[in-house]
Amino acid sequence: MVLKDWLARITGFEKRNDSADPSWAALAPGIGYMAGVSARAAENLSTVLACTNAIATALAYVPALVYRVDSDGNRVEAMSHPLRRIARGGANPQMTWPDWLEHLVASALLTGNGLAEIIRAGNGQLSGFRWIPWGMVTVVYLSSGRLAYDVTDGRGGTRRLLESEVLHLRDRTDDGLVGRSRLSRAADTVAGVQASNAFAKSFLERGAQPSGVIRHPGAMTLEQKASLREQFNSNYSGAANAGKTLILDGGLEWQAAQISPEDAELLESRKFGVVEVCRLFQVPPPIVQAYENNTFTNASQAGLWFATFCLAPWARKIEAEFARSVFPSNGPYELELDLSGFLRGDPATRWQAHEIALRNNVLDANEVRQIEGWNPRKAEPAGVRSPPPANQGEQSHV
């Protein structure tokens, strides 16, 4: 090892191209996939797609606020910070902030890892983010103990991004470095749901009729059997031929198999599959339009449950990753994804809470108006009082 490499290593710098670094090529494209099925194929399951969209879209929808924290711990919204402009103007020229964040979260949900390149201007100021599909990434463990990310461009070219140049959103990991998707952790469960859907598809393709037996009073040659099978499949098999009248001659008799989709519990197994996948993603079934055993009471609580136990942990992950990779170490800035819109509850409960806060001087009227998304009320000039309402003093009779 030459002197400059030794000095770079002990001071924490990494080399962008080091052929001696062991590559974790097996981890990047494959670890986020369930057994034998890619994450893209898993989205063929409607519940996987619905859960992924519900979480990713909700987090992309909420306001992204940037705060500056002073030495006393007080927070003031940083209106001039570049991240605030990015959250409103777009992550890059091709993607708005909601589009970019939705891609990042969906990738983390399906593959266990969401990766984005941090784009900075020539002066080092933050200028945007670029989402990178995880299937195009190979993770490299450098001799310094840090990670690097080799990204292919789809045309044979590769470039290396260092740990400080990316925002890496992980699902729970096995090694503390690369995330592993919950689809791969529960591969048997997802495969069972997929098998149930495949059976239903095959059942419908056969015309939604159970198979049966054709009886012949005598012996048939192999050629006769093959001809009968071909004619039967072409004329009476499939959803397009469902309901056709079956005509048999030559002493042939049809005997339907004594099994029905209810006997096979097809519908119940598919309903249970929806709940199983929802359980993997911590999404209440009503959020993905699964209303079995649903009531008005638990439906009204589904949004609160969704925000508290599903969205809030992912929002905290995103905020912590921004603190690690985007903002300077121990800097005064922090990102907050504002979930208050999900947590405020119904209007009656919310305004009762506001009334208690006003009565106990926890909030003032303008702070309540700000929470509700209204502009502050202008202060009246000294000595001037607004006229009372025209009906003041009148009693209403209901």
How are the secondary structure elements laid out?
Layout: H1 3-10, E1 23-24, H2 27-30, H3 39-42, H4 46-61, E2 64-69, E3 75-77, H5 82-89, H6 97-111, E4 113-120, E5 126-132, E6 137-141, E7 147-152, E8 158-162, E9 166-170, H7 182-185, H8 187-205, E10 212-215, H9 222-236, E11 253-256, H10 266-281, H11 296-325, E12 333-337, H12 340-343, H13 347-359, H14 365-371
Antiparallel strand pairs: 1-6, 2-3, 2-12, 4-5, 4-9, 6-7, 7-8, 10-11
InterPro entries: Phage/GTA_portal, Portal_HK97
Region (Disordered): 374-398
Protein name: Phage portal protein
Structure description:
By secondary structure, this protein is α+β, with helices and mostly antiparallel strands. It has a domain at 213-253. The chain contains 14 helices and twelve strands. The strands form four sheets. It has a four-stranded antiparallel sheet. It has a three-stranded antiparallel sheet with strand order 3-2-12. Strand 2 (64-69) and strand 3 form a beta hairpin. It is extended.
Task: Encode the helix/strand succession as letters.
Answer: HEHHHEEHHEEEEEEHHEHEHHEHHH
Mean pLDDT over the full residue set: 78
Sketch the major β-sheet.
Answer: 4 strands, antiparallel
Which structural class do the helices and strands define? alpha+beta
Q: What would the principal axes of the Cα set say about the shape?
A: extended
Strand order of the largest sheet: 1-6-7-8
The count of strands amounts to: 12
Protein name: Phage portal protein
InterPro entries: Phage/GTA_portal, Portal_HK97
Pfam family, one: Phage_portal
